Amino acid sequence: MQIVDSHCHINFEPLAGDFPGLLNRASEKQVTHMLCVSVNLEDFPQVLNLAHEHENIFASVGVHPCYTECEDPSTARLVALAEDPKIIAIGETGLDYFRNEGDLSWQRERFVRHIEAAKITGKPLIIHTREAADDTMLTLKNEDAESAGGVMHCFAEDWGVAEKALDIGFYISFSGIITFKSAEQLREVARKVPLDRMLVETDSPYLAPVPMRGKTNEPSYVRHTAEFLAGLRGMSLEQMAEITTENFFNLFSGAVKPAG
What we know:
- By secondary structure, the chain is α/β, with parallel strands linked by helices.
- The chain is built from nine helices and eight strands.
- It has an eight-stranded parallel sheet with strand order 1-2-3-4-5-6-7-8.
- Helix 3 (75-81) links the parallel strand 3 and strand 4.
């Protein structure tokens, strides 16, 4: 069995301080591959180095919508950084109206540049959205993000938003949030999403799933999310692992698929 953590931040502390242990625990839980996602260019070298040092780790390049005191890259800059073969995605990018206030035109402009970079490179987008679902989906549609493809990471919206994402060919990635007691609306979404459009992730070191809630999240815990999702869909963990692993490598075509 192989499970892929499709979104994690393993260069963040405290995970980076116990990297050999993190990899061993992931291996013990059959978490064979992981995508370490960039949030700013200042720390991007760490992300890329991890991918180059470990065959089973992939990387993205992008700047999170909540980061303000950082380099705000041009489309050309993103495209140049994405030339590295270990970079399999652009992002994470999107809109976040929860943490930022006032004139957010800069955030929308940054988002558009990431979409442009994805279309130029042919590498899919990793989308973050919080309290900005309508504008996020409208931007994706208006900027023809469908031609690049991508994933709605750490999905926490309703079925209406999921449908819009699915309509433009995007995947839906479920994190530990789906195991939370308060997440019944999200579980309804998970029951409806086509099986060939599902991914699982940790978003570690955040959002540890039940029964690990309250602990620092790590890639090995994605097994709990996959198991919970399997229960919702009336299938075994092995079946869900096979489906979500296949989906990961279908979406991120630049990732080297594991043998077998």
